[in-house]
Write a structure and sequence with these properties.
Helix content: 40-55%
Radius of gyration: 22 Å
CATH class of the largest domain: Mainly Alpha
Number of strands: 13
CATH architecture of the largest domain: Orthogonal Bundle
Number of helices: 15
Strand content: 5-15%
Number of domains: 2
Bound molecules: protoporphyrin IX containing FE
CATH topology of the largest domain: Cytochrome p450
């Protein structure tokens, strides 16, 4: 086996592996235990890879500031997601998620979100029982597909078929259920290839049925493929839409799920959302930020391509190409300052965390910081806050759950719930 990439001086090596390389029943407990033993900077040698974990405030500042050409987030993401997704989905893309969330697209996206939320709320009825994460997942599909797959998708009789295919393809399983990736590899991604083909075919049919431009994101994607031969264009457009949608599935629905759970647990905050006057005009958005903070299970990874110097505040490390830099949000987001273990949407002023005061922006992360911060942050906060406002204006949700816990084996994205989160729906 090749020598692992050098890190000089060499920090302590933790006695653990990452869950795609060996059994880890609770990722937060395992990496948290490594940090307790080794301190804020340590190495994990896992499978064929070497990871330098950083948790000190100075170490985190350096982590988020490293330029992409020196230590790549794109390659680290690809390494993770390609355990689940077919390579063909990444090849030849002409539209990337970054390009969607421009000022020019904002009002069209907002209209698509409103249409999607209305369609979903129309399905709810007094006396129904729903699982909050199932509800959020379905709504996440609706909001996403209406936004980049064409609003006509909301009325399509193939919507269920398409979302079933996207659920089977779901790249986030690579970090939500990492141990399952061995089976995915053994099958040669057979289920994923079949799901991708199904989704392509349904999306290509939608595209073919669109007679004239309507000025939305799908038109923008179509334009990117205008010069390609028909068959190539249909697959290309469909794969652009699929990859954007897969990106949205990593976090949006789960953050919405926790926003709903936390609000059902805090009826006093729901009462304030219903009034939303004065300082509370943006309360729903602050609730979404607060639940995202608490729900974060993201491992942040950068694959080192050129030698990198990392200062953690105590020592300066030279990291050779081939290693990965890493940090893990659940170990900082709820413990970097006093009181962060509590749910409190009033700790946010607009989108700035103000309590506890004096924290570095890298210590508590919701949508990322630095050059790779999430381009879909405004879109996602609008989506989640509009759902919370509209849902709680119309309904009471009576909890039928105790205290939902996050899935313990997850290592990436916003937590999925370990068990069911059922509520009874009552019209107001
Ligand atoms: C609640 C919803 C969301 C949360 C909490 C979230 C969180 C994040 C975080 C923490 C990062 C930075 C990761 C890092 O530095 O390694 C990120 C980046 C990114 N997100 Fe999101 N995200 C959300 C929704 C979305 C959606 C809806 C899309 C696309 C449709 C999206 C696309 C992206 C992309 C493309 C990047 C990479 C940016 C870059 O590398 O320059 N996200 N997101």
């Amino acid at each position: 086996m090749a020598e692992p990439p050098l890190i000089t001086p060499m920090p302590a090596i933790a006695d653990c592996v990452l869950p795609w390389d060996g059994p880890v029943s609770d990722t937060v407990a395992a990496i948290g235990a490594a940090r307790s033993v080794c301190g804020d900077t340590f190495v994990v040698d896992s499978g064929d890879d070497r990871y330098l974990f950083l948790f000190s405030p100075v170490g985190l500042r350096h982590f988020y500031a490293v330029p992409e050409q020196q230590a790549s987030k794109a390659l680290a993401d690809w390494q993770m997601l390609s355990r689940k997704l077919p390579d063909e989905l990444f090849d030849g893309r002409r539209t990337l998620p970054h390009e969607l969330f421009t000022r020019a697209q904002a009002s069209g996206l907002r209209a698509s979100l409103e249409a999607a939320i209305s369609a979903q709320l129309a399905e709810l009825s007094h006396g129904a029982e729903i699982d909050l994460f199932d509800f959020a997942r379905r709504l996440g599909h609706r909001m996403g597909l209406a936004s980049w797959g064409g609003r006509e998708m909301l009325r399509s009789d193939r919507f269920e078929e398409l979302t079933a295919a996207l659920d089977a393809l779901d790249g986030s399983e690579a970090f939500v259920a990492p141990a399952r990736m061995r089976d995915v590899a053994q099958s040669g991604k057979a289920a994923e290839y079949a799901a991708m083909a199904k989704a392509e075919q349904i999306l290509a049919d939608t595209v073919a049925a669109r007679r004239r431009p309507v000025g939305d994101v799908l038109d923008m994607i179509l334009e990117r493929w205008a010069d390609a031969p028909d068959a190539e264009r249909r697959v290309g457009v469909a794969r652009d839409v699929i990859l954007i949608h897969i990106a949205s599935m990593s976090n949006l629905f789960a953050a919405l799920g926790w926003s709903l759970v936390h609000l059902v647990q805090h009826p006093d905050v729901i009462a304030r959302i219903r009034v939303r006057r004065g300082d509370d005009h943006d309360l729903a958005s602050r609730c979404a930020l607060e639940s995202t903070r608490i729900g974060q299970r993201s491992i942040m990874l950068r694959m080192v391509l050129e030698p990198v110097t990392i200062d953690d505040g105590s020592r300066i490390y030279e990291v050779a190409p081939g290693a990965s830099l890493a940090t893990f949000l659940p170990l900082t987001n709820t413990s970097a300052g006093p009181g962060l273990d509590r749910y409190d949407p009033d700790r946010w002023q607009g989108s700035r965390l103000v309590a506890p005061s004096g924290l570095a922006p890298e210590s508590v992360v919701t949508f990322g910081v630095g050059p790779h911060a999430c381009p879909a942050r405004p879109f996602s906060l609008t989506a989640m806050s509009r759902v919370l406002e509209q849902l709680f204006d119309a309904y009471e949700l009576v909890p039928l759950f105790d205290d939902p816990r996050p899935r313990p084996d997850q290592i990436g994205g916003v937590a999925r719930a370990a068990g069911s989160c059922r509520v009874a729906v009552q019209a107001r």
